[in-house]
Structures are given as C-alpha cells and as structure tokens.
C-alpha cells in the first residue's frame, strides 16, 4: 500500500514548530466519533489537521506541540490499552505505541488530560488551536486555562494570546510534498479505474446505484477505505443538479450519465467527473456540449503553471464556454459583454476548480492581500468546467434541455506547467465511445 512515510509526520511537526512564536504551545484534538443511529457509529475518519501532524488513526486523542520543551516537544494524549475494549472494538496503540510507532516524545492517558494539560500550558505565552471548528474542544481549552487562572494568586501564569492555528497549518497543507503527490497519484489511479469500470458497465435499464456499486468495487479493491465524498451518479436531467446524491433513478436510452466520484487513500482525496451516454453513443447535441466543455478544460490546463494566478484557469473556461454557447445559439450577443454581465452563469454557475488534498475541497487561501494567489510548484487543484442546461430553460430549443456535462481532473503544479493525475480515464468522445463499444462486444 502506498502511504505517507512515518518520517514525514515528524518533518511536518518540526516545520510547524519552527513557525510558531517563541514560548508557545499548539493543541489539536482528534476527530470525534459520530453516532449514525442508536449505538451504531459512522465509519471513523480522522480530522485532517490531526492526521497531517500525527498519522495517528484513533479517536479520543489530543496532540500537543511545545517547541523547545526539554523533556520532549511532541506529546500525545490517547486511550489506554484495555483488553476488554480491544476485544470488542479493535487494537489501541496505548501510550507505549504512541511513542514507539508514532514518534511521540511523551504520551499520557486521555483520561488524565485535565490533570496534566493545564500544567503544560502554564507559563507558555501563546496557545495555537483550531479555534471555532470544534466548540466542545474550545470549551475544554477554556476550562484548562481557567484552572491556571484560578491559581494565579499562587504565581501561575496563564497564556494571554490565543491564535488560530489554521493560518500556519493550512498554508503548509497547500504545498504537497513528493510523498503526498505519490499518494494522490495512487488515489487518482484507483478512481480512474473506477470510472472506466462504470463506463464499461453502463447499460440502459440499470439504476444509477448500479454504477455506484461499480465505483465502490474498484475503490475497495484498490485499498481505499471509503470515497472522499458522496459519489454523484446523475443520469438524464439529474445531471443538471450539481450536488445530486439520490443515485436511484433508472438509466434511460438517450440519456447522459454524469459521475463525480473519487476515493481517498491515507486521507488524501481524488475527485474525478466524467459524463457519458448511457447507451454508448453521444447524440449530436450532447456531443456539441461535451466537446465545448472539453475544449474549455484544455484551455484551463494551459493556464496552470508557476507564476500564473489562481483565477486564470477559471477565466479561460469562461471565455471558451461563452464563445461556444454563442456559436451554438444558446447565448446571443457580444462575447466580451456576455462575460462582463456573467450571462454564462445560466449554464456554468460554479468555479473551474478548488484546492485538493486531505480534504476534497482542501484548505489554503485563494487570495493573498486581496489578490488572486499565484500558483507554485506542489499546489494541487481540480479543473472541472461544466455546462448545465436546465430541463426547464424556456430560452433554448427543446433539443438542448436537460443536458448536463462536467469534466473534472486533478492536477499538481510542476516547474513547467502541471501534471494531470487523473489522465487514466478516457476523455474524448471517440475514446469513450470506443471503450464502451468494446465492453459491449466483450459482454455479448
Ligand atoms: N465532488 C465535489 C466537487 O467536484 O467539487
Ligand atoms: Mn467532483
Ligand atoms: Mn471538485
């Protein structure tokens, strides 16, 4: 299995500590367990920030970084070993495992945190935490601070600055290391295989969830524990619903099916969309829209390179799509004016992409000092233009209505441009039709 190597977690902690102010402390909780119903839990997914700094997969844990602490800078509070609980719920690292396998300098039982953590915070000037994202943890943090304040008359010194950790940490997460790109390439490879399998399985009369099952099969077979987000399998007019999740309609002859799905490997997401005809052959209108979206995506790739800014790729898609919609008669008027008045938004209402990483819509600022961020090597993003012609759009000829097309790939900025991580899935009309025709011949 491809995964983030252990030493990388230690490098990340050191890099973060190097940016923290002198005499400070950073405190981060693991993700809470979420109840699904009664005593059934949702599949556990570690918090991305916590995972980024620790690689520690368990709930009920708190990570503490104390740059310059003589007895060790990295402290992990976690569950104790417990033979009975482990028999029911699975193995725990315990404090020994936290030190031996996860590089902690010191580890304590999570049940002792109220007794120990105030003493660690005491005397530090500044506390870094993910303020606001976990209100229950924020309350705990204030309780610990108040323990120190209550002892001020004994000379205890509470910290007087509280800083959001996000700014430092999320900027680090924005730049992907070679090891991260390797994991993302693997997630992309498996997801590409999943889309190919769904294309091959596509038949009139199946349900959207039948294709979702094909995706899930490849995700799991490839070693992914779960999709990076709820898979969108949207046939016919459902393709015009951007975040469609019902996935229970029948695949009809003459319909397109839009699939937006990607798996997660070692907490790194992939995010792919392809749109193909259920019956294996695009109609002339579907083909025209599809090729326009594809041309806009190609134009966007050309705008992704170091020193180009974040919005250039989006602007490229807007220009190609607006020009194309005018040529097809779906928009009327001057292209520059239609762009200025955002007339294209009736058909293309989202942006061309987002940062991609541990979160599918990953962290990282899109603007710096009010200006679009300039791209740099190692940044990962999606490129996902689309055209959606509402089934209810009375301003266009009937033959166009209900066509929704999105094409989405994942890229990493390189020295000379970008690497497309998801290029394993066919994308041209000819290639998709050939793949689908071949699958039908083999099945016959
Ligand atoms: N799958 C969500 C997105 O494409 O942004
Ligand atoms: Mn997507
Ligand atoms: Mn996306």
From TrEMBL:
Identify the CDD domains for this entry.
Answer: Prolidase
Which top EC class is given?
hydrolase
Q: Which residues form the Aminopeptidase P N-terminal domain?
A: 4-138
- Keyword Hydrolase present in the record's keywords: the answer is yes
List the catalysed reactions: Release of any N-terminal amino acid, including proline, that is linked to proline, even from a dipeptide or tripeptide
For this UniProt entry, what's an example GO CC term?
Answer: cytosol
GO terms of molecular function: manganese ion binding; metalloaminopeptidase activity
Species per Swiss-Prot/TrEMBL record: Pseudomonas arsenicoxydans
| This enzyme's EC code(s) | 3.4.11.9
Gene Ontology process terms (BP): proteolysis
SMART domains of this UniProt entry? AMP_N
Q: Which family does it belong to?
A: Belongs to the peptidase M24B family.
What protein name does the entry list?
Xaa-Pro aminopeptidase
Keywords for the protein's UniProt record, in alphabetical order: Aminopeptidase, Hydrolase, Manganese, Metal-binding, Metalloprotease, Protease
Q: What InterPro entries does UniProt report for this protein, alphabetically?
A: Aminopep_P_N, Creatin/AminoP/Spt16_N, Creatinase/aminopeptidase-like, Pept_M24, X-Pro_dipept-like
Q: Which cofactor does it need?
A: Mn(2+)
């Amino acid at each position: 299995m491809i995964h983030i190597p252990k030493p990388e977690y230690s490098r990340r902690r050191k890099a973060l500590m190097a940016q923290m102010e002198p005499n400070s402390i950073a405190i981060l909780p693991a993700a809470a367990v979420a109840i699904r119903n009664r005593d059934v839990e949702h599949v556990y997914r570690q918090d991305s920030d916590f995972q980024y700094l620790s690689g520690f997969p368990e709930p009920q844990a708190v990570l503490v970084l104390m740059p310059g602490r003589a007895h060790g800078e990295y402290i992990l509070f976690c569950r104790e070993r417990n033979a009975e609980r482990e028999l029911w719920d699975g193995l725990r690292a315990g404090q020994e495992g936290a030190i031996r396998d996860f590089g902690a300098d010191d580890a304590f039982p999570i049940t002792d945190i109220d007794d120990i953590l105030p003493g660690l915070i005491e005397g530090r000037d500044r506390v870094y935490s993910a303020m606001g994202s976990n209100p229950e943890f924020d309350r705990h943090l204030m309780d610990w601070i108040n323990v120190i304040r209550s002892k001020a008359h004994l000379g205890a010194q509470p910290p007087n600055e509280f800083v959001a950790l996000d700014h430092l940490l999320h900027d680090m997460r924005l730049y992907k290391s070679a090891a991260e790109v390797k994991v993302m390439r693997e997630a992309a490879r498996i997801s590409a295989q999943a889309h190919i399998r769904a294309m091959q399985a596509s038949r009139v009369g199946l349900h959207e969830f039948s294709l979702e099952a094909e995706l899930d099969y490849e995700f799991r077979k490839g070693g992914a524990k779960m999709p990076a987000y709820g898979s969108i399998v949207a046939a016919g007019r459902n393709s015009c619903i951007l975040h469609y999740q019902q996935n229970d309609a029948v695949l009809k002859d003459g319909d397109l099916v839009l699939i937006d799905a990607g798996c997660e490997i070692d907490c790194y997401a992939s995010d792919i969309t392809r749109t193909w005809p259920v019956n294996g052959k695009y109609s002339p209108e579907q083909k025209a829209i599809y090729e326009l979206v594809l041309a806009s995506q190609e134009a966007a790739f050309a705008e992704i390179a170091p020193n180009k800014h974040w919005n250039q790729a989006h602007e490229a898609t807007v220009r190609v799509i607006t020009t194309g919609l005018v040529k097809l008669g779906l928009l009327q008027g001057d292209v520059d004016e239609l762009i200025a008045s955002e007339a294209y938004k009736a058909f293309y209402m989202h942006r061309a992409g987002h940062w991609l990483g541990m979160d599918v819509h990953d962290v990282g600022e899109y603007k710096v000092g009010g200006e679009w961020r300039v791209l740099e090597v190692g940044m990962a993003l999606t490129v996902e233009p689309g055209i959606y012609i509402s089934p209810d759009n009375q301003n266009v000829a009937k033959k166009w209505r209900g066509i929704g097309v999105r094409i989405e790939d994942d890229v990493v900025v390189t020295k000379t441009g970008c690497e497309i991580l998801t290029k394993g899935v066919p994308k041209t009309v000819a290639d998709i039709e050939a793949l689908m025709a071949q699958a039908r011949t083999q099945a016959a």
